[in-house]
Amino acid sequence: MDDRLLDNYLQELRWLRSVSGDFARRHPQVAARLRLSEFDCPDPHVERLLEGFALQSARLHQRLDDGFGELSESLLEQLSPHLMRPFPSTATACFIPDPLAGDLTRGYTMPAGTPLYALNAEGKTVWWRTALEQTLWPVAIDELAWCDAATAQLHSGLADARSALRIRLRCLAPYRFSQLAMSSLRVHLCGSPQVNAALFDLLYAHAIGPRRPQPVGVRNASDILPFDAATAASGVALSAWMHCPQALMYFDLPMPPGAEDDTMTLLIPFDCAPPTAQPLQPDDIRPGCAPLVNLFARTSEPLIAEHTRSEQRLVADHNDSAVQIYRVQALWMSNQESAWRVPPYYSAQGHSESRWFWHTRRHRMQDNTLWLTLVDSCFDPAEPAEEASLTARLWCSNGETALSLAAGTPLAFALPGPVAQARLLGTPTAPSSPIARRDARWRLVSSLALNHLSLTDGETALASLKEMLSLYAPSSASSAVWQQINGISDLRCERVSEHRGGEAWRGWHNGLRVTLTLDPKAFTASSRLLFAAIIARYLARNATANCFVQCVLQDDGRTLPLWRDTGETALSA
């Protein structure tokens, strides 16, 4: 039960007693019969009547407050839908291919959205889907090591190389590198937080030479959640950084032509020395990994459109209490003759073409259950004239059940493939609850008022940026997230104009150049470049038409490009 009901009940009861005392003073004869007073009524029957009336008034008060909250939530659902939904648990899967199970000369591609499942100690099934495409190759990493400036310059032929990362690869028998049509190798940074931060910063912005790693984790950060046309990709990427930054630690390493051998050494030169002297372990970088998110498709239990109830609870599976509804994909209504799709009320579809629309309300005090209501174009409850059934296509999660899986838990595929072993790399992250209703109105107003133009106000630019980031911070955000947000020490903005595109006929565009300065003390165990790149992408994707936002990071007197809304990577700037 909501604690607000008790507060409203006590408030209504105090008001009734106060009014009763005033009534007793004005009309003593009538009040004497009812024994009304400003304090407890000696007549137990009258006292129970007052308490019952106070309870009903409290429920009405709460329902009126919820009605206003539902309006702001519905508007926010159109602006940033993912903020109104629980963020599911995420994890990392490690796959080891079976070189004898099939032809791996062109690799085995697992597209994003590949379903997997695991069993916990109690025998409950936890479903996962991959959030990034991964191609499995019969390749393993045998050695990782830092190289000094002399070694880096000698083997790369670049005079400005100050260090390098040496990766020794081994091809699994019976394959050799000359047999593999492998132009790049997708790897995951999975070492200690300090090592991951150092590797990410170097690979993202300090690699030099013709073959530079590509930050596919940051580029595809919005794919952590299933596609939703109403959700801005930049907002999902920002939420992904706050909930699961490890899911963004993926790079594509360009591969040279393979030799007639089962070993190969990659050398990635950098224009600066590594910030840490900690030696590298072979498992600090792994091939064959993919981020997982605890989401899966499910068809709801059928509902009967009844005239006795205007609101019904959506249930994904009566036999599995661990299944929770993330969002509704679509709703169908059917009778004995036909079936048709019911559009959502808050959508861009014309209301003149449909008689019914659906609207959902999330009850946070009941494990975030979803309640479904059929309404007409005026948002009044509407039921079909004849008996009909309702069926919804859902995205579901397992909620807190995903946390029961330990590191190393084996994973199984819904469809077989040439994979010898699949397991969890580390433990899953905790799912996050959606924002509370009391915060919805403030976030709605803030999201409407704040955009990239708020950064042009001089002294208020830094506060505006921090306000933007705080909008996406979950209620359970760790202290490290707030430490990094508060670690933005300076922000300078200036209006610029530049020629966009490679064609000569293209004209000049007006834009905004944002220079970030971060406090290194706030990023002792996290990547400054990852944080800055996510901010840069968010600002670039939220620019208005015919305008651009160019972000750079001021780092030890150097200016590092981060993200460009032209689709080019910062590494090629």
UniProtKB/TrEMBL annotation:
InterPro entries: T6SS_TssF. Pfam families: T6SS_TssF. It comes from the Bacteria. It comes from Citrobacter rodentium (strain ICC168). This is T6SS protein Cts2C.
